[in-house]
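Q: My labmate handed me this sequence with no annotations at all. I'd like to see what the chain might look like in three dimensions before we decide whether it's worth expressing. Could you predict it?
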Amino acid sequence: MTGSDHPPAGTGPRPDATAAPSAATGLRRWLYLSAGLGCVGLAYLGAVLPGLPTTPWVLLASYCFGRSSPRLQRWVRRSPVFGRLVRDWEDHRGIRRPVKAVAVLMVVLVVSLSLTFRALPVWVKGVIAGFAAVGVGVILFVVPTVRDGRDDPPGGATSA
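A: Here is what I predict for the chain of 160 residues:
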């Protein structure tokens, strides 16, 4: 083969970004499985307890299950509670606008209540408010927003 027989760099088929990673075996598989189950538990707690996030635990659970149990990973992806969130992250690497709105609202509500009704030193309140501001900034400006598709014309084409 000569150099001209090869396609130019970057034009060949890309590996599938959503392809399942290789599954762990033995002790490593059980560690991933245990971590995934623990993360699901924390995610459910986060869904009902203010101040404990849900999204990172769900995404981490899906990651762990992807390396230990394809069956449990499918279960998380199909979950009526967490499924859409996981699919949006895995397929689009982002979250939808309503999820962002709820996350920001919860951060603001919980932090405001904590700062108002807790007797904390002023500097501690400042640190808490600073971390909350960073969290809200990450949610709004760093984590990509997945579009619903309702605004998109049929077929994904855009009008000029």
